[in-house]
Amino acid sequence: MNRVTIREQLVRFYKEDVGTGDLSVESIFPEEMTSELTLIAKDTGIFCGKMVIEEGFKLEGTKIAIKYCRDDGEEISSGETVAIIRGPIRTLLTCERLVLNLVQRMSAIATKTNHLIQLMGETDTRLTDTRKTAPGLRMFDKYAVKVGGGHNHRFGLYDAIMLKDNHIAFSGSITEAVNKARDYVGHTVPIEVEIETEAQLDEAIQAEPNIIMFDNCTPEQITKWLPKVPKSIATEASGMITEETIRAYSETGVDYISVGALTHSVQVFDMSAVVKMKTMEETS
């Protein structure tokens, strides 16, 4: 992830949450009061979000010291410490929820990705994400997929062409759609074509896109059709892929499996933030 872009996005999130000020902390704590905040995992999985912690707690420009107990991609168990942050109590409490929301989501995505890769077994197929991300979170979501051991599909509509059923229907044919797309962008932008039937596969092969996606096809169909595809065209399976079926899809021999559930319906990785309490000496 680009640190400058992360900071800019976090500023947007901060403004949405804080507005003109954090009434809770400003009404109770003086600016000069400092403390310590410990982030603790309450689930077991893959940690992700170190840069978010660092940039998130520095949004207010105050002096912050952070001790990390885990790096991105490392396993963490319930009850273990993720990081310890020291600084003004106002900053710690104001930025706490913003940071936790993102780090919990990113760690959940990394954990889910790693889990599915384990289910795929010892195959050469790569697991990728999709564009099914929440608006504003794509950069964080896709980074988390990579931390979990997965690979990124296209980032948006601007860096690759994917010709889906509606594109093909409006164009009239796969051949027409691929030819128009290739003439428009030139040879440096990859073109992917989605197919659902053997007839569509045959036409796609003749059109010679960079990638052919088997959409909502069964493992049996893919296994039968895959030998037709020349090595010069990469293959991808998508749709109908679950924890129960992903091993069968990976064993078909496709190059990639894309799973929208990595980002669109992931269950949060639970964490808590615990503040060091004041002692009697500090209170008096």
From TrEMBL:
<comment type="similarity">
    <text>Belongs to the NadC/ModD family.</text>
</comment>
<keyword id="KW-0662">Pyridine nucleotide biosynthesis</keyword>
<dbReference type="Pfam" id="PF01729">
    <property type="entry name" value="QRPTase_C"/>
</dbReference>
<dbReference type="InterPro" id="IPR004393">
    <property type="entry name" value="NadC"/>
</dbReference>
<protein>
    <recommendedName>
        <fullName>Probable nicotinate-nucleotide pyrophosphorylase [carboxylating]</fullName>
        <ecNumber>2.4.2.19</ecNumber>
    </recommendedName>
</protein>
<dbReference type="InterPro" id="IPR022412">
    <property type="entry name" value="Quinolinate_PRibosylTrfase_N"/>
</dbReference>
<dbReference type="InterPro" id="IPR036068">
    <property type="entry name" value="Nicotinate_pribotase-like_C"/>
</dbReference>
<dbReference type="InterPro" id="IPR037128">
    <property type="entry name" value="Quinolinate_PRibosylTase_N_sf"/>
</dbReference>
<comment type="pathway">
    <text>Cofactor biosynthesis; NAD(+) biosynthesis; nicotinate D-ribonucleotide from quinolinate: step 1/1.</text>
</comment>
<dbReference type="GO" id="GO:0009435">
    <property type="term" value="P:NAD+ biosynthetic process"/>
</dbReference>
<dbReference type="GO" id="GO:0004514">
    <property type="term" value="F:nicotinate-nucleotide diphosphorylase (carboxylating) activity"/>
</dbReference>
<dbReference type="InterPro" id="IPR027277">
    <property type="entry name" value="NadC/ModD"/>
</dbReference>
<dbReference type="GO" id="GO:0005737">
    <property type="term" value="C:cytoplasm"/>
</dbReference>
<feature type="domain" description="Quinolinate phosphoribosyl transferase N-terminal">
    <location>
        <begin position="22"/>
        <end position="107"/>
    </location>
</feature>
<feature type="domain" description="Quinolinate phosphoribosyl transferase C-terminal">
    <location>
        <begin position="109"/>
        <end position="272"/>
    </location>
</feature>
<dbReference type="InterPro" id="IPR002638">
    <property type="entry name" value="Quinolinate_PRibosylTrfase_C"/>
</dbReference>
<dbReference type="Pfam" id="PF02749">
    <property type="entry name" value="QRPTase_N"/>
</dbReference>
<dbReference type="GO" id="GO:0034213">
    <property type="term" value="P:quinolinate catabolic process"/>
</dbReference>
<dbReference type="InterPro" id="IPR013785">
    <property type="entry name" value="Aldolase_TIM"/>
</dbReference>
<keyword id="KW-0328">Glycosyltransferase</keyword>
<keyword id="KW-0808">Transferase</keyword>
<comment type="subunit">
    <text>Hexamer formed by 3 homodimers.</text>
</comment>
<comment type="function">
    <text>Involved in the catabolism of quinolinic acid (QA).</text>
</comment>
